[in-house]
From TrEMBL:
Its EC number is 3.2.1.1. It is an enzyme of class 3 (hydrolase). The keyword Signal applies. Pfam families: CarboxypepD_reg. SUPFAM superfamilies: Starch-binding domain-like. This is alpha-amylase. It comes from Aeromicrobium wangtongii. Residues 1-31 form the signal peptide. The keyword Nucleus does not apply.
Length: 444
């Protein structure tokens, strides 16, 4: 076969090329419009910083919110502090953040927002700030290795600029691991006006979190109520300061904790993903054993560190399809099944079965001393019409009826004249949750 295009093939190729061109002109909003270049210099006091780590993060705007930033490119500065990126996708829905880290720890980690332009080279220079440094020695009261301890400071006083919710990702809490000999070095700390910290924390291993008391020269409970004690835990670092903290001994052990696991399913045993599980401590029923967690695709959930005590477990569906309930069924935490956690002993098989919620349409007709109420009940999950029982009551008077295909009609007699609030209670079924609703009627 000849390598040349035939007279029939050439027009077809031309038409295809024209179609691609027109398709490009009709590209939807947010489609790629090209790629851009980004370069710049990382400096400190006018001099370039060599071998600094420069990372480029992209997040995507969806509606009014942005996705979590994802790292797309990394470069190391040369001896003069220069970096460069090429082939950066440019879309109207993309924005980028530049994160610069000096591996020596002598400067403060810095981030800058940047907008690449398709077909052009954008210059973004980054001027770093001199950091402060903390060193010291920590030992354990039991003589064990302190290598599982960490020392850190809070960054609540740091100016977050316009980083918004992504700030913690680009500038996380400053912590350093303690070495086997007890020494630590905490570098890269903002200093000067931003260098005042409410405390220096020590935690890890079997020990509870404690903070330096710089007057008593020891570790104490963090965030005490006494203003004078708060002042004793505060530390201010000058620009470029390298401070050695006093030697301290950790003594306060954490309470033993246990691992609590379970599974959330429907009544047929099918796992339910994305259900929110909360573990609350009794007797108050308010304190939570850690943040609520969401069930995995297997329906499983895990609370890794639950202190000894008695708890109730509640499951909620953020979408409202499945009815909320406590372990053992029902909405009353005081009547729910208790979970007793002993020191260090894992608690397994904390399993909850959820029923579908139901909606109800109510028709009413008032008579002389009576009210007639008709209901139509629908199962939220499937749209089917369940069975069950309904009860209509008012001040000791009750009327009960069987629900057939989601429908039932009840007439309650002996009611006083005027506007009355009747109580409608649906029993539910093995797979559909019950409910209670107030029905208002104007009795003649």
């Amino acid at each position: 076969m000849s390598s040349r295009l035939s007279s029939r093939t050439a027009p077809a190729v031309a038409l295809a090329s024209l179609g691609l061109l027109l398709g490009g002109l009709a590209a939807p909003a947010g489609a790629a419009t090209g790629t851009g270049k980004l370069s710049g210099t990382v400096t400190l006091d006018g001099g370039g910083i060599g071998f600094a780590k420069v990372q480029l993060y992209r997040n995507v705007i969806k509606g009014q919110e942005s996705t979590k930033p994802v790292r797309v490119k990394t470069d190391n500065t040369d001896g003069r502090g220069r970096y460069s990126f090429t082939g950066i996708p440019v879309k109207s829905s993309y924005n980028y953040t530049l994160l610069v880290t000096d591996r020596t720890g002598r400067t403060v980690k810095t981030f800058r927002h940047v907008d690449p332009v398709a077909g052009k080279k954008v210059t973004k220079n980054v001027r770093m700030k001199v950091a402060a440094l903390l060193t010291g020695t920590v030992v354990r009261a039991d003589g064990g290795s302190p290598a599982d301890l960490t020392v850190g400071v809070d960054i609540d006083t740091i100016d977050r600029g316009d980083a918004g919710p992504d700030f913690d990702m680009f500038f996380p809490e400053q912590r350093a691991a303690v070495k086997a000999d007890g020494s630590f070095t905490l570098s890269g700390l903002p200093s000067g006006p931003a260098g005042t910290y409410p405390n220096v924390k020590v935690s890890g291993g079997p020990y509870a979190e404690q903070c330096y008391d710089f007057v008593a020269v020891r570790l104490a409970d963090c965030a005490p109520q006494d203003p004078a004690s708060l002042q004793r835990q505060q530390i201010t670092l000058a620009k470029g300061e390298a401070r050695t903290l006093p030697n301290v001994t950790v003594t306060k052990l954490t309470p033993p904790v246990s691992r609590l696991t379970g599974t959330v399913t429907d009544t047929s045993g099918t796992p339910l993903k994305g259900m929110q599980v909360t573990v609350r401590a009794l007797p108050s029923g308010e304190a939570e054993a850690g943040e609520p967690v969401l069930t995995r695709s297997s329906g499983g959930f895990t609370f890794p560190k639950v202190p000894a005590g008695t708890y109730v477990v509640r499951v909620d569906d953020p979408d409202g399809v499945w009815a909320k309930q406590y372990l053992g069924g029902g909405l009353n935490q005081w009547a729910s099944q208790r979970v007793v956690v002993a020191d260090g002993r894992p608690v397994r098989n904390v399993d909850v079965q959820l029923k579908s919620t139901a909606t109800v349409k109510v028709g009413r007709k008032a008579g002389k001393g009576s009210a007639k109420v008709a209901v139509l009940i629908t199962r939220t999950l499937t749209g089917s019409k369940p069975g069950g029982r309904v009860v209509l009551s008012h001040e000791g008077r009750t009327k009960e009826a069987t629900v057939v295909d989601g429908r039932a009609t009840l007439t309650l007699k002996g009611l006083p004249k005027g506007t009355q609030k009747l109580r409608l209670t649906y029993s539910g079924t093995s797979s559909t949750a019950g409910f209670t609703k107030t029905v208002t009627v104007k009795v003649q």
